[in-house]
Amino acid sequence: MPDAITEAKIFTCSQSTELAKNIAAAYGTSLGNVITSTYSDGEFQPSYEESIRGTRIFIIGSTNPSSENLMELLLMIDAAKRASARHITAVMPYFGWARQDRKDKPRVPIAAKLIAKMLEAAGATRIITMDLHADQIQGFFEKPVDHLFASTIFLPYLKSLNLPNLTIASPDMGGSKRAYAYSKALESDVVICYKQRAKANVISHMELIGNVEGKNVVLVDDMVDTAGTLTKAADLMMERGALSVRAICTHPILSGNAYNKIENSKLEELIVTDSIPLTQKSDKVRVLTCADLFANVMHKVHHNKSISSQFIM
Which of 4, 50, 179, 256 could join 170 in a cystine, given CB atoms 3.0 to 4.6 angstroms apart? Predict the structure, then answer.
């Protein structure tokens, strides 16, 4: 007779506490007990306050800046390994540092590769994440990676809007694959923005490929940082005759004066997930939870069931 599957335990890093509570509730359990001690110089030490020997544990933590978020996740993985956890799954709703997935100029790091190796060195035996900035980051890992798509969250919402003359838009050439996948699911047209950057986060020129006149446009992207691209694209599309412009972005980094840009833009609304907690409130920002998606996948992973139904893009 095979051994019965023992119940998994779910823990959280401090930056993802609210989301982790929701994931645990959707999973049907409560969060495990972890305390963090902090030294006067800022150094910190997480500690599991219950036995995890021989169990599968899920550690939930997005690795958005500051770098302490990543460090906390690494320390919790290392502590779990040394406490003899049997399986250690790092649940990273947002995989930070993913924009550095290649050398785009001489003498720069490939940070996404480095992060992958750090997670594995710490002791992670599996990674669960959502909407990586670049799909090929999965190849940086030697351990299994479950790459989930937020389209399972966004598509039902978009369909509920019943927008006539719907057109899906990509804010840049790199997101065209994602835009085409959404357009196929929604049976809509596609337009693409072509942009040139003066430097990181600064757009020098943007042009529109396709017709948006008389259309209700939905911009699709994996993350929104300064919101410069989205707001510029929305203004451009409204100038070209669009009826309305919305944006769906999985990860709401929203740094700098992003909230002001959104409020002052012609965006109807920005729809995001709670993979990263919002730092401000905005009437234009709508948050859809990813807790049920992660809880469902975590449950299936623990019970060795197929998760292929979660991959619709």
Answer: 179
